[in-house]
């Protein structure tokens, strides 16, 4: 039987200038720059500019970009009213997908040229945090908090959610988290966004499809599942039996494994350090439990399947966000707050790539393995003759 590239693994479907992964060395590059240099030296806003415009901004460009983002943070009051009609226990990813899609109903959808697309990108990047924070307030019976123009992107989100300005250390930790999640080549949600954009659908439509793809537990949804796992385990002494039992039943351990990295995910390394640092302060057990999940999964994988496995970006973000008092079902929406930058950059590249080969409508081929009655097809029976 012909072997197929299940899940399109290893198939190159388009050129991109936006990011690159070296899966063997564990390196992630945004527009030529190592992610580790960006986390040390840049802010999320600078990183977003880099991903969108293919260069690091100078001071003037950054100021202009920041002020466009700040101006675009507001969402229509009517949208917040509509959120009030949702079930309070609705999944925040469902809410986010619906309200990102709804942006098209409030804003001009001009998307036929590159400049207009950048405006849409800024609108989206600025409004996604406000949508998430508004929902967090509204579902708890609280008034949404207006954006604060004196705060950067990361701090403003935390402020809109908690109603208090974060201290500078927390702000920087969260900013680094946003930098780390902003892009990752043709991951499932970005590929979804590009595929929708390849039909010439507009940006909000492509982004809301990407949110749907991100929500699944094999992709961005894993960070929420990791926290559920940590809470279920609850005690470092229970990690080994828990992991052994799950893996012997064939279950996957969330936050472990990656389709591209054959070594440590560089983002997981940074998040691990940040989570460890926070745990020293808060004295909570979640970092230690996560580390034990990591080592136990690695040794179980080795003994059960003689295979290597490493943490991915979703393993240590879970404990980190938990220690920042973020409700665990917001872990994946927070991923979206950052990844929306990558989606927007890829949507623009998909639609307006200048160099050949230009992207085309994605349309893969399927192998038909269904009913076959011969070259003429099956004999059709009318309803009254069917048994
Ligand atoms: C932001 C992100 O999207 S990062 C990924 C987030 N997702 C998760 O953390 C979910 C858990 N991880 C996984 O399911 C996988 O590692 C994936 C889907 C991320 C990548 O999978 P791939 O490397 O392509 O491997 P694939 O799904 O083909 O699995 C290969 C083998 O490793 C096993 N395996 C892979 N990941 C795990 C895991 N986390 N726990 C246990 N076993 C695993 C699979 O069961 C499979 O075993 P088999 O060959 O005996 O059936
Ligand atoms: O690249 C992938 O397949 C998944 C991932 O790590 C991401 O989207 O950040």
Automatic annotation (TrEMBL):
Q: Which Gene3D superfamilies match?
A: Citrate Synthase, domain 1 (1.10.580.10), Cytochrome P450-Terp, domain 2 (1.10.230.10)
Per the UniProt entry, the Enzyme Commission number(s) are 2.3.3.16
- Catalytic activity line of the entry: oxaloacetate + acetyl-CoA + H2O = citrate + CoA + H(+)
Gene Ontology MF: a single term = citrate synthase activity
Please state which protein family the record places this protein in: Belongs to the citrate synthase family.
- Keyword terms: Transferase, Tricarboxylic acid cycle
What PANTHER family does this protein's entry cite? CITRATE SYNTHASE, CITRATE SYNTHASE, PEROXISOMAL
GO cellular component, as recorded: cytoplasm
Q: What is this protein called?
A: Citrate synthase
Q: Which pathway does it operate in? A: Carbohydrate metabolism; tricarboxylic acid cycle
Q: What is the lineage of its organism?
A: Archaea, Nitrososphaerota, Nitrososphaeria, Nitrosopumilales, Nitrosopumilaceae
* Active site, per annotation: 258, 314
The transmembrane residues are: none
Which EC main class describes this enzyme?
transferase
The reply on keyword Transferase is: yes
**What GO biological process term is on the record, naming one?**
tricarboxylic acid cycle
